[in-house]
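Colleagues,

For the teaching module next term, I've prepared a clean inverse folding example: a structure given as tokens, and then the sequence designed for it. I'd like students to try predicting residues themselves before seeing the answer, so please don't circulate the second half yet.
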């Protein structure tokens, strides 16, 4: 039997007041697919009767909006809602694809984008494309609203830079007109299986001469956090794509991660597959 104190505010103001009062002693609850599993499995010391701040009744955290330069995503958007949303499908199709791999229909109908981000797993499926897009995270406390780039928001495996009185209130994803993106992932099964390695890519559609003017690459499940492959991005930038260049990128990207051996895979396989997945993207999209 698990006991919680659950607070279910109906407005953001009320939620921020509760967070200001209880600070680190109250834990935001979105879909609960990470929090509740962690409490049940005693993954961290949750204390006798943890207090949960259930955000689900706050309508103001549940939206997708378009501005001239960005798509703004509310933290309570579930993975199913994101993968089916027309604005996401049209402006960030690789994110729609990435979250469609998560868990199972039940998990995708319940788990949210902010929960996936705040859990900060290096294998989280939403993250590589958010890194490629340089997504900006909005955090509100009772006193202020701040923004932080995703690469600074996630500080380590399971760690985020969030004030104990703060709540994530928006994820702003810059539009990238004329880019093609993709999310490539290897996992042991097609469903209910965690990422073994993933590669997110966003690339400015090459011109007729096959020159890559800009490309962004992010790697998942191969380092303590998701990482950008900046050396490989620089290698490919302003180059005409040839088989020789693909081979060079295939080798270089493998040096930009530090995978580990674990129950799902081993470091040599993970490292090698970053090269294979990136080459696959380049061959298919140029
Ligand atoms: C069976 C199973 C399969 C899974 N498969 C996958 C998978 O394939 N890929 C994958 O990436 N993940 C997977 N997950 C992990 C999980 O479902 C996702 O990470 C999900 O997106 C978490 O979202 P949630 O809304 O359930 O988060 P919650 O569990 O509610 O919260 C997670 C964390 O985020 C914090 N949080 C949530 N919202 C906010 C907010 N607005 N502000 C501040 N902090 C907040 C919570 O306090 C908590 O620390 C799986 C989980 C299960 C149980």
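(Answer key — instructors only)
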């Amino acid at each position: 039997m698990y006991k919680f104190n659950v607070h279910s505010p109906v407005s953001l103001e009320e939620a921020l007041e509760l967070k200001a009062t209880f600070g680190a002693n109250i834990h935001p609850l979105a879909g609960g697919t990470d929090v509740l599993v962690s409490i049940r499995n005693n993954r961290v010391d949750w204390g006798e009767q943890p207090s949960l701040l259930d955000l689900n009744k706050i309508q103001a955290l549940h939206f997708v909006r378009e501005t001239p330069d960005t798509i703004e995503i509310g933290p309570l958007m579930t993975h199913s809602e994101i993968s089916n949303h027309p604005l996401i499908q049209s402006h960030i199709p690789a994110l729609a694809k990435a979250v469609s791999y998560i868990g199972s229909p039940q998990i995708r109908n319940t788990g949210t984008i902010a929960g996936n981000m705040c859990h900060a797993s290096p294998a989280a499926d939403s993250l590589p494309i958010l890194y490629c897009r340089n997504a900006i995270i909005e955090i509100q406390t009772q006193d202020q609203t701040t923004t932080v780039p995703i690469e600074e928001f996630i500080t380590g495996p399971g760690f985020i830079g969030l004030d104990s009185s703060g709540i994530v209130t928006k994820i702003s994803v810059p539009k990238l007109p004329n880019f093609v993106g993709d999310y490539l992932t290897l996992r042991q099964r097609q469903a209910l299986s965690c990422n073994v390695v993933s590669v997110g890519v966003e690339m400015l559609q090459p011109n007729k001469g096959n020159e890559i003017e800009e490309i962004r690459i992010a790697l998942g499940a191969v380092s303590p956090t998701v990482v950008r492959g900046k050396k490989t991005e620089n290698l490919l930038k302003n180059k005409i794509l040839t088989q020789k260049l693909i081979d060079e990128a295939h080798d270089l990207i493998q040096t930009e991660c530090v995978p580990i051996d674990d129950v799902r895979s081993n470091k040599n396989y993970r490292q090698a597959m970053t090269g294979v997945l990136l080459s696959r993207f380049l061959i298919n999209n140029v």
